[in-house]
Specification:
Oligomer: single chain
Number of strands: 4
Radius of gyration: 14 Å
Strand content: 25-35%
Order of helices and strands: EHHEEHHE
Number of helices: 4
């Protein structure tokens, strides 16, 4: 199994990002990615002293294997999702593709 992890760094305007992130359109874009097996989304806790960590949210998208994930990430649906997310994630965004070992 392969996992795409999307790391959203602290946006300059959290309210604007949350409006995009919680929109039905964004949820529909995630669901349209080809061959997705499951999606997990999380909001990162602040540090113990209350200060923010570099990451604000994460999204994990699971695929059956590397070739399937690669094909899905080259799809128009992935381009649409990434473009909208990158525009909303004004603090930066990172993508990691990982092999699930256990």
């Amino acid at each position: 199994m392969v996992k795409l992890t999307i790391i959203i760094d602290n946006p300059k305007d959290p309210s604007a990002f949350e409006a995009h992130y919680t929109s039905p359109e964004f949820k529909a874009q995630l669901a349209k990615l080809p061959s997705v097996q499951r999606v997990e989304a999380a909001k990162v806790f602040p540090k113990e002293d209350g200060s923010p960590t570099p990451a604000y949210r994460t999204i994990d998208v699971y695929f059956p294997d590397y070739d399937t994930a690669s094909a899905a990430l080259e799809s128009p649906e992935a381009g649409e999702l990434a473009g909208g997310l990158a525009a909303a994630a004004t603090g930066g965004i990172r993508f990691l593709l990982s092999d699930i070992e256990s």
